[in-house]
Specification:
single chain, 628 residues, 6-stranded mixed beta sheet, two-stranded antiparallel ribbon, 60% helix, 5% strand
Length: 628
């Protein structure tokens, strides 16, 4: 059975399509629900990839049509981009700067104007690449983190129009092969770097460009039209299925982008290519979805700052009625932004091109000046009382050698020797949880005329056979550490420490590998000391204590329930107790920090953690002091 002939790619890309606004809804809703921690949307971050495909299709269609007609103008192109992007973006950045000045503690405020300056210059993906990972700790206090995707798009549109102009002038027959070739190279790089732990593959244009090029290939007619109505129906519903699969089955541990990005990208491409005239296309054209699609840009801009600021001020992850209120507030803010900011600025009759360029220049200048002023004043500590600053200072109560010694393997540096200036007879082997504990152990060792080696690598537990899904560095670092122990018979004692309480490590398979690692070290005649789980807290401890101090409620400070810690570390603690029964020494932070009901988060006015689960130096000294 055949329906009417499908429209050409150029026609589809240049006319309004309700189904594409519906597809925008299918992109923004998973992002919103993922960020709001709604169960079932663990892969909602793939909505950004859908946006990339849509953008590549629509913008390329406009550029290609005008280039072919000889009417394309870079000035007019960037005028349209500024009309679309800058007004709502500028207002959101200004609001974030104002809210951060009011709410953020000094150490947290310092990064906001830097990211605001980067977002204003459409370089925030470069800033966040050097500053944090999307799924890493600390991302939840960065209210402009989401602007990385806008930066990727704008960087793409700096060079892409010029590429199309050059191809049209000098090699018109090579337009499609050139776009396909660059897309293939970008995809290949994305796949090759899918285990990259630096953030390059996630944040930067070279590994993301293929997603925009996927839409561009549709716009230039690289993919033949499917004439069969049922063929288009099958492809369109297959596209929806691919997107639903990615949204519901992916999570923070999925290697992404890379091969995994193919599902949302090809799913979006399938819908753009085949949805018109199908039941799937009519469903995407459903009025509520189209309405969400129309406000999707503003909803993307406003939802993340509202989530971050709510969680920051309450010290609690979104849940229950708070989650519903923030989601509803995000939608309301998006509607207002679309109605009173986006729409007026898109009206070229009311606001001519010259006005748009002047507005954009003035907005960027204002935001840059405000950002630079806030950068100059640092964290602006005079906004807070001394009692608040005392608690906030817990963020910097870390090992003085953390920067020099931690992750030495990844940097190709020699591991640090801490303590007295003598040959080391001990080694601490672990992840980032070991850094402050190594320093506390070194203080004791130095007083006794001894020293120890620190070998710590972020997110890499000291377990032979552990291979982090996103980070090949861990297996290599652990092999190198074991080889170093083999090669140095002077190392008589090995401390093993990690974030045992993070949930994924309390797994029988992982525990069995740790068991074999301990047995291997003991077979070599090394004395093994297990440093047990540090009780994780549900909030950033110094920040929580500072908020309580600001409200003059510091006496209400209390940590996580002891029962929660015991339940979360059941298998690990059982293993540790078995080894302790065989003579292995156990340093147990739970014993040092917890009573029968709850675990402490401060002692003598000092935070015992520098975030939610890493011990501060005050906490590390307390734990080691009770066992050594």
């Amino acid at each position: 059975m055949h329906g009417s002939a499908p429209l050409s790619a150029t026609t589809q890309a240049s006319r309004y399509r309700r189904d594409i606004d519906g597809l925008r809804a299918l992109a923004i809703l998973p992002v919103l629900l993922f960020h709001a921690h709604v169960p079932g949307f663990s892969g909602g971050y793939v909505g950004v990839d859908i946006f990339f495909v849509i953008s590549g299709f629509l913008i390329t269609g406009i550029i290609a049509k005008e280039v072919d007609e000889g009417s394309f103008s870079l000035t007019r192109f960037y005028e349209r981009r500024f009309r679309r992007i800058m007004p709502a973006l500028g207002l959101m950045i200004l609001a974030v700067l104002a809210a951060s000045v009011w709410f953020y503690l000094p150490g947290d405020l310092e990064g906001v104007p830097r990211s605001a300056l980067a977002a204003t210059l459409f370089a925030s993906n470069l800033w966040f690449f050097t500053d944090t990972g999307y799924f890493a700790g600390g991302a939840d206090v960065k209210p402009l983190l989401h602007t990385w995707s806008l930066a990727v798009e704008e960087q793409y549109y700096i060079g892409f129009p010029i590429l199309l102009i050059l191809l049209a002038r000098y090699a018109p027959r090579w337009r499609t092969p050139a776009i396909a070739g660059i897309a293939a190279l970008s995809l290949a790089l994305s796949v090759l770097m899918q285990r990259d732990a630096t953030g390059f593959a996630f944040y930067l244009l070279p590994t993301r460009a293929w997603e925009l090029f996927a839409g561009a290939l549709l716009a230039v007619g690289a993919i033949p039209a499917v004439r069969s109505r049922w063929g288009r129906e099958a492809i369109a519903w297959g596209g929806i299925a691919a997107i639903v699969f990615a949204v519901t089955c992916y999570n923070a541990d999925t290697l992404f982008p890379g091969y995994a990005a193919l599902a949302p990208v090809l799913g979006a491409a399938a819908l753009i290519h085949s949805a018109p005239g199908t039941h799937a296309g009519r469903w995407l054209g459903w009025t509520p979805l189209v309405g969400i699609g129309l406000i999707s840009y503003s909803l993307y801009l406003w939802h993340w700052p509202l989530i971050v600021l709510t969680e920051y001020t309450t010290d609690v992850a979104l849940a229950g009625s708070t989650r519903i209120c923030v989601i509803a507030g995000s939608v309301v803010a998006a509607i207002l932004s679309w109605r009173f900011v986006e729409r007026p600025f898109r009206d070229s009759r009311r606001l001519p091109a010259q006005t748009i360029f002047r507005f954009t220049a003035a907005t960027m200048l204002l935001l840059a000046v405000l950002s630079l002023v806030l950068i100059a004043v640092g964290g602006w500590p005079t906004r807070f009382a001394p009692a608040v600053l005392q608690q906030a200072a817990g963020h910097t109560d870390v090992s003085p050698d953390r920067k020099r010694c931690h992750d030495s393997f990844a940097r190709g540096a020699q591991p640090c020797v801490l303590g007295a200036a003598v040959r080391p007879d001990a080694m601490l082997w672990g992840d980032s949880h070991g850094v402050e504990l190594a320093q506390a152990l070194a203080l004791v060792a130095k007083a006794r005329g001894r020293s120890l080696i620190e070998r710590t690598s972020s997110s890499c537990p000291p377990v032979i056979g552990y291979d982090a899904p996103k980070d090949a560095r861990c297996a290599a670092a652990n092999r190198a550490t074991l080889a170093a122990i083999h090669a140095d018979p002077g190392i008589r004692r090995v401390y093993l420490v990690a974030f045992w309480a993070n949930g994924q490590f309390d797994d029988p398979g992982f525990v069995a590998k740790l068991d074999r690692t301990v047995a291997l070290l003991r077979q070599e005649g090394r004395e093994v000391v297990l440093i047990g789980p540090v009780p994780p807290q549900p909030f950033d401890v110094p920040r929580h204590l500072a908020h309580l101090a600001r409200a003059e409620r510091l006496d209400e400070a209390q940590g996580v329930d002891r029962a929660f810690v015991d339940a979360r570390t059941k298998h690990i603690r059982a293993l540790f107790n078995r080894w302790r029964a065989r003579g292995v020494e156990l340093i147990d932070p739970v014993t040092a920090l917890c009573d029968v009901r709850q675990c402490a988060i401060e002692r003598d006015g000092k935070p015992l953690y520098f975030d939610s689960h890493h011990l501060s130096m005050a906490g590390a000294r307390l734990v080691i002091g009770q066992f050594d």
